[in-house]
Automatic annotation (TrEMBL):
<protein>
    <submittedName>
        <fullName>FAD-binding protein</fullName>
    </submittedName>
</protein>
<keyword id="KW-0560">Oxidoreductase</keyword>
<dbReference type="GO" id="GO:0016491">
    <property type="term" value="F:oxidoreductase activity"/>
</dbReference>
<dbReference type="InterPro" id="IPR036188">
    <property type="entry name" value="FAD/NAD-bd_sf"/>
</dbReference>
<dbReference type="Pfam" id="PF13738">
    <property type="entry name" value="Pyr_redox_3"/>
</dbReference>
<dbReference type="InterPro" id="IPR051691">
    <property type="entry name" value="Metab_Enz_Cyan_OpOx_G3PDH"/>
</dbReference>
Length: 162
């Protein structure tokens, strides 16, 4: 029998993390399942990017976020998420991908797998889908799109020089 949670949150981006913090505050049991690292969509942003939002607008769980400039960099935001996760002891399982969900009489079974393909099922009364949109690039469906030298994220231009 799998461990039964009040809530399983799928996606460990800003929305999934703040949902976890809110549930924790209410004393509900939860787990966040994230297929990559926490804040994966932010990880995939350009390396030296500065956000449009000011740091106070990016805070989660009412935990202050101070950055060197009024608008934080990608690295500062990722550091903030790591710090909040650690300090608040957020219950998150990284590098597990949810593949499907089965509805039972009074619960759901969430079917996930780890990086080496081991099946890891979870049971929950409620599911929160916090899978975002930035994580799934809209492909052009053109020849050569899946070559290893093609990236669907703009990290930096350096490698394409010459
Ligand atoms: C270049 C750029 C600049 C931006 N600037 C700003 C800004 O200044 N201010 C601002 O507020 N926003 C900005 N954004 C948008 C911001 O990134 C999103 O609003 C935010 O990431 C949305 O959070 P989310 O938690 O809803 O989704 P996401 O951050 O996309 O998180 C979803 C998570 O779900 C995970 N996931 C998906 N499918 C599965 C699955 N099957 N199993 C397990 N996990 C899964 C993904 O890996 C991902 O980590 C910017 C985005 C980009 C690309």
């Amino acid at each position: 029998m799998n461990c039964m949670y009040d809530v399983v949150i799928i996606g460990g981006g800003p929305c999934g993390l703040s949902t976890g913090l809110a549930l924790q505050e209410k004393g509900l049991s939860y787990v966040i399942i994230e297929k990559e690292a926490i804040g994966n969509s932010i990880v995939n942003c350009p390396l030296h990017m500065t956000f449009y939002s000011t740091s106070d607008r990016l805070e989660i769980g009412n935990i202050p976020f101070l950055s060197q400039d009024v608008r934080p960099s990608r690295n500062e935001l990722l550091k903030y998420y790591r710090l909040v996760s650690e300090r608040q002891d957020i219950n998150i399982r990284c590098y597990q991908k949810v593949n499907s969900i089965t509805k039972n009489t009074a619960s759901f079974t969430i079917h996930s797998e780890d990086r080496v393909g081991n099946a890891i099922p979870y049971e929950a009364r409620i599911i929160v889908l916090a899978t975002g949109i930035f994580d799934t690039p809209r492909k052009l469906e053109v020849a050569g799109e899946s070559l290893s030298k093609v990236s669907h994220y703009n990290k930096e231009g350096h490698n394409y020089f010459g």
